[in-house]
Design a protein that fits this description.
The complex is a heterodimer. Chain A is α+β, with helices and mostly antiparallel strands. Chain A is about 65% helix and about 5% strand. Chain A folds into two domains: about 240 residues, MetI-like fold (Orthogonal Bundle); about 60 residues. In chain A, helix 3 runs antiparallel to helix 4 and helix 10 packs antiparallel against helix 12. The two termini of chain B are about 45 Å apart. Classes of the chains: A alpha+beta, B mainly alpha. The interface between A and B is large, with 58 and 58 residues.
Amino acid sequence: MAQPNDRPGPPPGPAFSLGSLWYDEAVRGVIIQILVLAGVFATVAWMVANVVANYAILDKTFGFDFLWLPANYDINQTLIEYTNRDTHLRAAVVGLINTGLVAFLGIILATVLGFLVGIFRLSENWLVSRLAYCYVEFTRNTPVLLLILLWHGIFINTLPHPRQAMTVGGATFLTNRGFYVPKPVFESGFEWVALTLAAAIVGAVLVHRHVRRVREATGRQLPGGWISAALIVGLPGLAFAAVGASLSFDVPELRGFNFRGGLYLTPELVALTWALAFYTSGFIAENVRAGILAVDKGQIEASQALGLPRGRVLRLVILPQSLRVIVPPLTSQYLDLTKNSSLAIAIGYVDLVGTLGGITLNQTGREIECMMLVLLVYLAISLSISVFMNWYNRHVRLVER
Amino acid sequence: MSVPATATPTYPPGQHPDLPPPPGTAGVIGWLRANLFSSVFNTALTLVSVWLIYEFVTAAIDWFVLDAVWEAGSRVDCRKQGDGACWAVIAIRLDQFVYGFYPADQRWRPVLTFVLLFPALAPVLFDRTPYRSQLLWFSLAYPALGAWLIYGGLGLPVVDTDAYGGFLLTMILGVTGIVASLPLGILLALGRQSRLLAIRVLCVTFIEVVRGVPLITLLFIASTMLNYFLPPGTSFDLLIRVLIMVTLFAAAYLAEAVRGGLQALSRGQYEAADSLGLSYWKKTWLITLPQALKIAIPGMVNVFIGLYKDSTLVVIIGLLDPLGVARAVLADAKWNGLSNETYLFIALFFFLSCFAMSRYSLWLEGRLSVDDR
């Protein structure tokens, strides 16, 4: 990049003309920027003027006061309390929580599936790696909206009626009206179990630190993993036994034409979560594969030459190095999954786009305000994830001399 | 190489003929051993996979072919004939799946446009196409020619855009989006690397905002509120509005792919061009961009595949793409509930075209890395 100060100034010409300014790089840069900015501002001003003119003709006003008006519509899945007399704002929050729920479940499922398939893809077994390849190619080369509709269709058209429900272990039922799973019921005393679990996790972290300090000081490897496992399983187990079994399950039962009790998952929630996870897992599998292949073969051979057992080679050498490659694309996959969850509207799962960008927009006619809010929410999610990603990248960056 | 069994022949040192490999290490058996049965765990994996494949393939063949019904008047009729797939629903609505509501007597026009796509694409995709330089002129003229053939005017009867549908609409969205987003994406990538602060900030803002929101919200904007931003009374075609949004969306993603290429280029290339005294545009056009695009090709093809797949979202704002046709078919009381058949049929179409694109990108990557040596 040329520094304006490094260059000799314009030669002392006999005549100064306005045209010669154009040939001075610094001056030209300023001129171009002023022109571009002027153009952008003019366009924006023109668009705002058009909006004002259009609003005047339609006799509409701009403002966000509609958010405090009653919404007057029902939402079929609400994780927080909501009735149709609540405000549009609360309806939007319900939608946002529904978006978050699908994104959260989908991300967990997609990560598990993606890592499994990615590892299968690298299997020494030819058949297994080919099967994983077929899975990856099918998921990656099919539109996600199509997959959502296909799985939704399968869940509502192919699964049986509640009376002939498919069952898993007699407690979970798959029907064309949704899934019914046992619902955990926490009774008094369970908070002690939760507390001891938290304490056990803190203890395990401390144990891990101590083991590491001892190893670094003396080279002795204490059985830290076993101690931590015993802590995490044992302490809450003891607490559970001490306060008397404080957890029971509400198992769904068939009564009449449908199930009662248990936790009810709508076919829309199940189809959307599963289809998003199915689609994204193919991409994650490829990221995982690329990340593992990116580890230098010499690293693995060197650790084997040091006599490290297989598990520790994987945990201490391969995984830390491949995660550095895997995590950045993984976060952008998570972001894509969250954005793709907006396709919920195609199967009638009510998310943020369904409430604020859908029913509220149609009821109040506030197109610009509603879409602005929807865009801002998604932008906030995206930007916070990329801030995290940049932080992580700095954190794990290879420090080279 | 028959060796007499009775006497061991003697060879002078270094003259002994090569022995065959030990049994079970070469050929089919050797391959099977190395790849499928190398350990107990591996053998178990193989057996489980074989069982899974057997179950899946036999069930799939039954459903797709053996028990399938190809001709029927309705879903009930289908179920009477067999309990496999009811392909009759596709057969009856095939015209709509392909053309939407494009008038039947004018269908030679999209067909011709589609056929001409191949000679237009060949010189762009394959550098060993015969008569490449002449054909490239045809490629350049193709978008205008295709638009004329499909829309009409100048001697052809006009077909309004709301008649376009099915795979025809997917191709229109895909090809137009790719052609239009390429120059815009390159400009955005260059702008993001620009020395001029205002231009850089504008490009970064545009790219990050577009990449941060779902495409469906942009399509909603196109369908519901774009008219507010135009002078009162103006309104233009929904398909054009959608095309603009799809192009802007793809351009932002494309810009990031191209930026990756520009950044991967060694600094020496920029400095050498500067030291030759080339102007910015000469430097970009002759030195940095060609190399950067070559590096960026895999990423760009991925963006194009994404754009092509995302063209299905237009069904949500009411355009009649294949999913829109499927929705109409499934809403028909006669065919109600045959979602598996219709969606799998559309999935096959998308799978074939996207798979071809990704294979092409792999092939090109191989070609270009050979060139580099």
